[in-house]
């Protein structure tokens, strides 16, 4: 049996004495535990006797690990960096036994996670969220621009925290999977659940803005899969089953959704930004829990209407598919679309439904280069290609079809969803309900919130999931009586704006001026008129963006 030994000399200086110890890092084959042993060099027979007794009781302790951990508190940043590098080397050792032993029997994970707590406690709570979002800090690298306190008050403290979070993230990524998972779990238990969560629940609007922005920044910085998973589980929960209205299995998600309706617009805006960060991760679990689990039964679809009207584009394409063998139709090889749901033959109707939602006289511009949706196509195409690449491994279906009867019955049992005629009573889930409720308030909300809401919907509409695609981007969809869709909500908003804006004096000029102001030309408009006019411009541009997304997805799926 081969024995591998690595020796290091550690000198501990105490008043009047100096002791040297040789540390042996030993491993007997790749599956044996790594043992840290001490071999003291005594200066007297009395010390020899005492050291032999102490050594026998400390043979199984992680002495090198503990030494490295002690250097994390050094005032010399270079020493701290070297200690961090040493910990990363040890954590990446390939032995399962060693990794499990360190995870279960050492203080490594707890100490690293608790340092996050200590650094977070030093950050003043009155920091501007925009200042936090602009910071780019990495551990082990000098960042004088962020360590200079003149940037903004608390800059150095935030930089120290983000640098340590970056180290924990890299350590989780580089560590043995057993140890990396344990560290990620410790960060969740010690920092997220004990510190950050309770801080968010404090009834202080300014504090909630800061904590929410801080969570968003942490989420942007974390990339190690195990640590990111713990963040996401903490925010949206681990339960993948649909929830009934008014019930929630995840207190954090419930609180964030509640904050989207906060009386202080700053809290709502920052919470919507956090949800945007979550959607930008394009994590399958997050998308499933927030949206997809409520749509896969297709219970929003009114099947009784399809006998007289083929409204769903996927069903329309099914009809075309049934006629494929007809001698009157010629389908050349390869002409069948990749997805009939994403590439309907009625694409022109779909696009025009969005573009003509508002009448021409309420458009804020008559410039041909700005009236169409073409200006959004290039950006939508780039985003959709990136989105399909990220989501390719999720195994989503290509078509929006009704589930098999057995599966449908199980998913609609009394334990999970209420019964209704023709299947399940449709519930879009708390996240989509929040979005639809706030979009319905579009005419009376601040411009920043409206912009954030439409951004959230655009992220969802971009996803290559057939049920979500059909539900958000099919204006022709026959809906159940209790179901709302994105287009039905937009129709309500358009009706509200069409009833109020034409009553304004010289409203066409005001719309043009508002558009120019939002593009950077600062012209003053009365406050009560400003909200309605800005909402009209937002709705106009949002419809163009949705039309562009529908067109791009059609192009890539046909």
Automatic annotation (TrEMBL):
InterPro entries, sorted: FHIP, FHIP_C, FHIP_KELAA_motif
Domain FHF complex subunit HOOK-interacting protein C-terminal, residue spans: 428-520
Transmembrane segments: none
Disordered as annotated region, ranges: 304-340
Annotated PANTHER family: FHF COMPLEX SUBUNIT HOOK-INTERACTING PROTEIN C-TERMINAL DOMAIN-CONTAINING PROTEIN, RAI16 PROTEIN-RELATED
Family: Belongs to the FHIP family.
Protein's name in the database: FHF complex subunit HOOK-interacting protein C-terminal domain-containing protein
Native source organism of the sequence: Cryptotermes secundus
């Amino acid at each position: 049996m081969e024995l591998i030994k690595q020796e290091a000399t550690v000198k501990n200086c105490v008043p009047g004495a100096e002791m040297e110890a040789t540390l042996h890092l030993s491993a007997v084959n790749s599956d044996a535990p790594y043992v840290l042993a001490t071999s003291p060099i005594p200066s007297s027979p009395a010390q020899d006797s005492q050291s032999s007794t102490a050594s026998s009781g400390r043979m199984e302790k992680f002495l090198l690990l503990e030494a490295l951990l002690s250097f994390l508190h050094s005032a010399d940043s270079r020493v701290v960096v070297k200690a961090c590098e040493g910990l990363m080397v040890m954590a990446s050792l390939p032995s399962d036994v060693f990794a499990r032993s360190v995870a279960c029997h050492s203080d490594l994970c707890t100490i690293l996670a608790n340092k996050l707590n200590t650094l977070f406690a030093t950050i003043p709570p009155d920091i501007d969220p925009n200042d936090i979002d602009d910071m780019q800090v990495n551990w082990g690298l000098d960042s004088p621009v962020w360590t200079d306190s003149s940037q903004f008050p608390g800059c150095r403290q935030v930089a120290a925290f983000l640098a340590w979070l970056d180290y924990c993230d890299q350590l989780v990524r580089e560590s043995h999977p057993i140890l990396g998972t344990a560290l990620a779990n410790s960060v969740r238990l010690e920092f997220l659940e004990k510190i950050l969560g309770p801080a968010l629940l404090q009834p202080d609007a300014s504090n909630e803005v800061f904590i929410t922005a801080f969570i968003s920044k942490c989420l942007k910085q974390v990339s190690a899969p195990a640590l990111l998973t713990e963040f996401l589980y903490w925010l949206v929960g681990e339960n993948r089953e649909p929830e009934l209205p008014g019930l929630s299995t995840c207190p954090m998600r419930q609180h964030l959704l509640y904050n989207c309706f906060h009386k202080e617009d700053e809290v709502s805006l920052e919470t919507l930004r956090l949800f945007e960060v979550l959607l930008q991760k394009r994590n399958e679990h997050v998308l499933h829990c927030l949206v997809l689990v409520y749509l896969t039964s297709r219970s929003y679809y009114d099947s009784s209407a399809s006998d007289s009207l083929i409204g769903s584009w996927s069903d329309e394409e099914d009809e075309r598919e049934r006629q494929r063998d007809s001698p009157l139709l010629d389908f050349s090889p390869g002409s069948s679309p990749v997805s009939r749901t994403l590439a309907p033959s009625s694409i022109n109707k779909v696009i025009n439904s969005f573009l003509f939602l508002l009448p021409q006289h309420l458009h804020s511009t008559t410039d041909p280069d700005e009236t169409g949706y073409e200006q959004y196509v290039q950006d939508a195409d780039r985003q959709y290609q990136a989105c399909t690449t990220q989501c390719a491994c999720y195994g989503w279906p290509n078509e929006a079809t009704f589930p098999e009867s057995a599966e449908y019955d199980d998913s609609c049992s009394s334990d999970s969803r209420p019964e209704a005629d023709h299947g399940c009573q449709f519930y879009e889930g708390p996240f989509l309900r929040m979005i639809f409720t706030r979009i319905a308030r579009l005419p009376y909300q601040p411009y920043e919130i409206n912009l954030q809401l439409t951004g959230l919907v655009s992220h969802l509409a971009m996803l290559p999931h057939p049920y979500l695609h059909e539900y958000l981007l099919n204006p022709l969809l026959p809906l159940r009586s209790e179901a709302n869709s994105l287009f039905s909500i937009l129709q309500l908003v358009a009706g509200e704006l069409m009833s109020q804006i034409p009553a304004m004096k010289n409203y066409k000029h005001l719309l043009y001026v508002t558009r120019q102001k939002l593009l950077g030309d600062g012209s003053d408009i009365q406050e009560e008129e400003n909200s309605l006019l800005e909402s009209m411009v937002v709705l106009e541009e949002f419809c163009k963006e949705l039309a562009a997304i529908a067109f791009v997805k059609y192009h890539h799926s046909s």
